[in-house]
Write a structure and sequence with these properties.
By secondary structure, the protein is an all-alpha fold. Helix content is 76%, strand content 0%. It is built from five helices and no strands.
């Protein structure tokens, strides 16, 4: 038979072992997973952000130049306002004379369609411009 000291030591050892096992069950994540996620966040904060931020700013600056600095020198409705006025006047005079507008200006329909299409494009251009964030 075990003496009382052996029994106490035996019980303490078993309790210590049970306590260790119980604490191990309380981890939310394994050490391996935690290290993997820490490594991922480390990469993101040390390299990924700077790389992607620089790419984003490069693209943003290209968009900004096109949409705000007019680097492509697009024609806008205000640029062709006089052309629209002339087309309207040609149509009016052709009607007064009983002529077909294409007889007076053969490209009248093509020119008019282009200006009308420009109107829609400029509206879409402005919508896109408004989507760009202000940095």
């Amino acid at each position: 038979m075990k003496n009382s000291i052996d029994r106490v030591i035996s019980k303490m050892t078993n309790k210590k072992h049970n306590v260790k096992l119980a604490l191990l069950d309380e981890f939310e994540y394994t050490s391996e997973y935690t290290n993997e996620m820490v490594g991922l966040l480390d990469y993101t904060t040390d390299a990924y952000f700077d790389e992607k931020f620089d790419q984003m700013m490069e693209i943003y600056n290209e968009l900004y130049d096109v949409y705000f600095n007019n680097t492509e020198n697009y024609l806008f409705v205000s640029d062709v306002a006089n052309d629209q006025r002339v087309l309207d006047e040609i149509l009016e005079k052709a009607n007064e004379l009983g002529l077909e507008v294409a007889d007076v200006y053969p490209e009248w329909y093509e020119h008019s369609d282009a200006l009308e299409y420009l109107n829609g494009l400029e509206a879409r251009f402005d919508e896109q411009k408004n989507k760009l964030p202000n940095f």
